[in-house]
């Protein structure tokens, strides 16, 4: 009950449940509620007990299984109990009726066909004016739960619900009805007109805050605001709602009301941002609320309502909050001891718990320290707010860049320090898309999109790099993600040489070596670019002084790159090796270049700059790639090798079964290697055996026959090298061949590699696909005129509809759907997927009846068979116990007669022969039926009917016999 | 619907756990401790709605605009009375403010049943506690919100034991006979 495992006691629980005394029974049922699961095994034995208790004459006993059922219900249990539950809907006691309704709802969740049988009765109860009010409320609750799943089925109930809403006076029910109507109105626009007057009335008059709130909520969620847009009463109700919500925030001073009012505002904000921003003052007040929940809501709200007018104020306010709040102290107890005062432990002494349960009145007042998560949320929200709709709200980009820089300083420190992440490579940075790189992303985005502030952005990036170099204490480890982007911006856009020299200073600073590997990679990439821009004007007039300057600079770079070639991270190692070679070549070129002709060395003036220049980088819409039209001559349908099928067939015939698998592995694992080594590179393979090459994907059948030989050789070799520690096993082909492949690329391609590596950083901007195709396909560049003549480059795209297409794309849709289906079900969630596919339409009832009828027919048959067995037994009993005839015969005689009447005429023509058959049949059926294990308890029940006086012992026996 | 009702004291010891969808015991314990960690750090002036604990938040899909409600628990309402926290976990079909009222009714009905209820009452008379809850919520659906009916419903099930008179024996047998006649 308090979280201890008691599955071992299931059977004992069942025993207690079957106690005849109510108190014991109640305990038993309580234990069942707390510990049984739908998959508890003993549950199968309980079916009969439940059936019996549901039809108990005592209401308290009756309500026990009703309360218990929702916790243990399974579809098979539902099937067998349904027939017993249904009559309880018309029980004389309202308490039983309402509990039955709730239990039926849970039955319907696991066994939707319940509703087919139960719905007409539930509907009758709802329609019945004279029904007990709490029963009606229970029905409304259930209908509300069912309603959002299949709103269409409940439209017919609208008039009755409307009456209940207007007349009832039960707030709880009214809330539920309003909730239900909110899901109904989108389907039936006429409802809006009808609902408006009572809702308005309720909003104006009700003293109950919860009802008021739900009315407003219903107005919002039901789309009534949209439905009455423009009309006079529409404006009226909109302003009324918003006014009331404002009142809830300002006047009441109750944090709960504040919270829900903000919730409601949040729902309006997407459709009516102007309505909300009228109340900006109140909402901004909530941002500084003591309560984090309220703050978070307000933050969401603020993010929704920003426009170009209030963006700066809002962001400034949030920044101020970030700046002023004390750093979090993550001590768990300081908050608690303040709030609660003394902490009584109920088990140890009985004194403190004697204190009565009264709402705590003490108030605490100190500004709470901001938790780290909240800080991160604020920063993310600021970024989201500003970048919304491709910076539609930002007027002053210099301000934005300044804000970004300040935000970097405000990023809370992460737990792992820079030295720790040094060894583990860039993984911890990329794992959690940290907020630092989010800021960096923005910085880069601005630099790319807004060309007018590019120099400003470069300066900002430069200052960030400098901050790291000088070990500025305000730069915490959390913001390191920004450096990757800053380095890129500096490398890509630095133009003036003075700035470039400063940037170079930061990039080759020894401190850079302690940064995470991912950042170092970006640094390395930026170094040659910055070098180019730094020396560009030096080259105009080449003299000995310049020559010394440049050679010094290059020497410094070489000095910086050298240690990095042994960096533990492979990526860093590779890049540094490449650039080191390039720099050495450059240094030689500078040294060897004379000062006579006033021209710089060709390598510096032409070759290296060309590595980095090309198309201008423009942002590309995420969906643009897919829209690049297929070239006409591209034919994906014609098979490349027309003989493939025959080839495969022959291959099948040739290979015996056991070698087949090996052959396939050879086939598929070695193909990439074959492709990689074509031409002269082949000769340079140090460890590669030429024989292997014969089994290629492209080979014809003749060489395939050699496969056995190859395999044998391979095995021999493997055997030979098995104990050699210097030999890496040949069986993992992929790892064995990747190293030579790598070597080849490096040795043959040399410094050309860095051309390829440029897009690694810029991949998200996707200049490649459209940059090349764009010239022929008339790619549109949309630039927007802004105030102050700021150009914001839009995402490049092929036509105008960008993301919309993406969504409606069939494949994307399918993927999306699958992803949704795959999404893990939440804990505590009730699975009602069966119910949502279920319809209450009366037209379907005929089909739906089948299941119930089948079940009833089965029951009848079972009862018939059992009666038959019983009769046989009684006859035998009578024959054997003739002495007791005076006592037993009359009672049993009448009972048998009763049985006969009950099981209809079919029994009448039953003769001795079919009787024997029936007996067999009944055994069979008791095995087949849902209560297969409960075969004996079923007998027990029949016996009980015959002899009520001895029912209980029998029953217990029945349970135990199982 | 309501997914779970929890009552625990200031040190996080559960006094009542009722999950309307069954969970493993260990998961239940984790959930309780996560919620307790959340709730115990809140100042008294804070509002009575909790953010979702990590256990629940990780599996909750974002709400879609065309489907206003779903089956996932999205709302945690709590109230703090002296030494006890009362917590309701529910889906979006419930109204947050109404749930607060519901907790209030629950506590008031306990108060009425026990006459000045305290934590000890709930410990020793857990049956009455569960019975009161059973009168109000069945299978996650609220079936009764009126204080009088809840109290009379529980009393109808048998005598409610008073404090300091042999705690542990919740209901007398003669009470049972009385209801049998009274209800028919």
From TrEMBL, chain A:
Residues 355-366, 918-930 have a biased composition (Basic and acidic residues). Residues 1-585 form the Clathrin/coatomer adaptor adaptin-like N-terminal domain. InterPro entries: AP3_complex_dsu (IPR017105), ARM-like (IPR011989), ARM-type_fold (IPR016024), Clathrin/coatomer_adapt-like_N (IPR002553). Its main location: membrane. Residues 896-905 have a biased composition (Basic residues). It is found in: Endomembrane system; Golgi apparatus. Residues 333-366, 882-962 are annotated as: Disordered. Keywords: Golgi apparatus, Membrane, Protein transport, Repeat, Transport. Adaptor protein complex 3 (AP-3) is a heterotetramer. Part of the AP-3 complex, an adaptor-related complex which is not clathrin-associated. The complex is associated with the Golgi region as well as more peripheral structures. It facilitates the budding of vesicles from the Golgi membrane. Belongs to the adaptor complexes large subunit family. This is AP-3 complex subunit delta. It comes from Stereocaulon virgatum.
From TrEMBL, chain B:
It holds the Pfam family Clat_adaptor_s. It comes from the Eukaryota. Residues 1-157 form the AP complex mu/sigma subunit domain. It is found in: Endomembrane system. Keywords: Membrane, Protein transport, Transport. InterPro entries: AP_complex_ssu, AP_mu_sigma_su, Longin-like_dom_sf. This is AP complex subunit sigma. Belongs to the adaptor complexes small subunit family. Its main location: membrane. It comes from Stereocaulon virgatum.
